Amino acid sequence: MKLANWFVDASQKGLIGGTVAIWLGLIGMVMRFSERAIIQDVVDLGHTLLLVVVFMVAFTAAKREYTSGLKLVAGAVAGAISALMLVLLVLVGEQINLRAMFINASPELYAFISFGNLALLPLIGAVTGIVAACFHFLPARLRNALFMGLAIMVVIGMLSDQLLLIFTNNGMVAYFRWLLAPKGLTVIGALIITLLVAVINYVRGLRKERAPTPGVSRPATQWVRYTVLLLVLAILLYLPQFLGAYHSQVLNQVGLYVLMGLGLNIVVGFAGMLDVGYVAFLALGAYAMGMLTSPEGFVAQSGGQWNFWAAAPIAFVVAVFAGILLGIPVLKIRGDYLTIVTLGFGEIIRILAISDWLRPYTGGAQGIAAIPPIAIAGLFSISGPAKQQKLFYLILICCILAAFVALRLKKSRVGRAWMALREDEDVAEAMGINLVQNKLLAFACGAAFSGISGAIYAANLGSIYPHSFGLLISVNIVALIIVGGMGNIYGVILGALVLVGLPELLREFSEFRLLVYGAVLIFMMLQRPEGLLPDQPQKLVKEGI
């Protein structure tokens, strides 16, 4: 490759990285993130964000088929140019008042992005670029393991204050002084976490390569799997008491999204039909619960009032019926047109709930309040200070049942028919698969999980409003499936933890939540379109098998 070509490519990558870094600084993201430490007195989240941007552009610049020396030089050039862009911002900002256009362009920002010494900033960028290029010399398995170790270390560092609070409340903080500092991780703790996660992922990769034929499990492997599942179940049973009320509430929110995600995963991941109006089934389940159990509901006004256990099957049936009702007019529609129809269906349900026409039943814009808590035989009520801990077990049971049903469906003849529909409807129909029956079944199963989730959601909050069922909820559910891995049940759980649980624990950065969502989705589509935990067929397609 000619000298001019690799230099131009590295320069372009560096300019892109520098532009992104400047933009993150001017919108206030860098300074806002700097308030949270990753490793105490060493690095914070703001500096980490800048270094990650430089690292990524340098890693991309050195990705081409260069010689070893040229890879290092390309990475250094891309990193140095990204840093020079930041130097240019500081120099311009010192001469021109940029705050008229960018309120965050302050002397504090300039001092922060200079890393304490403006003259050394290009050198820091070049060294970061060289380190990024060196990762290309590592075997792919080792490189991925190190990336995973660093990512988990950063996440634990961000959540260090939450972990410290939990351990303090349980009287265990003394056992974790080596790991957690008052702000962020300790240096030793960060190194241990990074190395431990990297080693685990590396060994896991080796075991996968040496594993027997997919679908064939050795007896020893099955025993290990069952033992791990029992251990995880035991941990989950004790988890609410260990976490406390607030963190149990976050976990319950994640659980509801897992339940909805498992339902949408049937429609999108198994059958390949993109549904962005999925929130409609959540709303129908919630309103069915509210109308049947609340003193303000039309059933109570007619002289009767149901409890949660009597109303939950009705919410289930209403959601299933709505799923079939949606499926009937879209049987002949595919692709983008199907997406638009489901979007319209979700908006229709929301507008009907807020309309004056259905006001006597739905309460209109005021919604339905006074929904009673969940009680068992009048003896046990999910309410009071420990409400969230009690509710966790109900959500856990629902998620386990939903995962079991989804897994059994996936491995059944119906599941194979859905996956054939996902790959090619024409070929599936030519093979004798009943498109009408299988599409309606997919919509009905997916809607059922969301209806149950809506019923629990209404009973938990005690009130529901039309504005609580906006399009963003459907987008969140689709996003967690994409990030986690479409078609993979474990991917749904991981996606909910990443896109629902993590932002909830980091509410101080809520103004940048949608921005991070968009960036994560773009990164996933470019670098890992199959998701963090891809389904086995998706893996085989990627590997060309």
Structural commentary:
This protein has 545 residues and is an all-alpha fold. It folds into 3 domains: 1-137, no CATH class; 144-210, no CATH class; 244-542, ABC transporter involved in vitamin B12 uptake, BtuC (Orthogonal Bundle), CATH 1.10.3470. 70% of the residues lie in helices and 2% in strands. The chain is built from 24 helices and 4 strands. It has a two-stranded antiparallel ribbon. A two-stranded antiparallel ribbon has the order 3-4. It is globular, with a radius of gyration of 26 Å. 39% of the residues are buried.
Characteristic key phrases:
single chain, 545 residues, ABC transporter involved in vitamin B12 uptake, BtuC, two-stranded antiparallel sheet, two-stranded antiparallel ribbon, 4 strands, globular
Concise structural overview:
It is built from 24 helices and 4 strands. The chain is mainly α and 545 residues long. The chain folds into 3 domains: 1-137, no CATH class; 144-210, no CATH class; 244-542, ABC transporter involved in vitamin B12 uptake, BtuC, CATH 1.10.3470.
Q: What is the terminal-to-terminal distance?
A: 32 Å
- Main-sheet strand order equals 1-2
| Count of alpha/pi helices | 24
Strand content bin:
under 5%
Give helix and strand order, one letter per element, not per position. Answer: HHEEHHHHHHHHHHHHHHEEHHHHHHHH
General form: globular
Describe the largest sheet.
2 strands, antiparallel
Uncertain stretches: none
